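Give me the fold.
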Amino acid sequence: MSHSARIGHSKYAVMVVREQDDGEVTNHYVSGVVVEVIFAAAFLLLTVLVCKIIYDSFTIKDLKAQLIDQMAQVNDLTDENESLFLENETLTAKVAVLSETVTTKAANEDALSAEETENALPKGFPLSGTATMEENATEGTENDNPILKFKASAGVNVISSGTGTVLSIEDDADYGNRIIIDHGNGYRSIYRNAGEALVKEGEILGKGYILFSIGKNNQELGYQITYNDEYIDPMTIINIDG
């Protein structure tokens, strides 16, 4: 004899009891399927709500982290901006000082250049002491070019009338020796004397450098000036007072 077991399914229902104002009690039944649906919906809603809370918490945490990073960046940029501002002020002050220095240096260089140009002009007296002078004397070998002829006592020196470079030292048919100094700006001075030259070709001279030393046998000096290779009257530029 065989026996079969039957497994039953539990069923449940929800009864809602309602008492009306007149004392009558009414019963309402909600089937188990509806209850299961309600519980499932409630569980799903609760799950969604929990996930939403968890998601929002992570989102808020990320936003806080981003906000902190942004605030740190803002602070860094603020500090950098202040540093750049101070650096800019420092550089501006340095530029002002440098500009003033350059302006002053340029003015000094211009003044020095003007002074150097003035000193280079053969305006000085070509002798270190007094001498007699014959103006506009002529020399046939120089094609009657303007020349000043000086006669000085022994012990006086023939000196450069301006700063310049010794261009040449040559023999001179009339005086014995001739020194030509290039002063730049087109000017050259020529010193003709029978003494021994005390400078060398290519030597850079200041104003007043000794070229010849006057003795008993070389008391005469022929002095000439050229401008752009043309002879000019030395009296138009020479300073007789020295």
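DSSP finds one helix and twelve strands in the chain.
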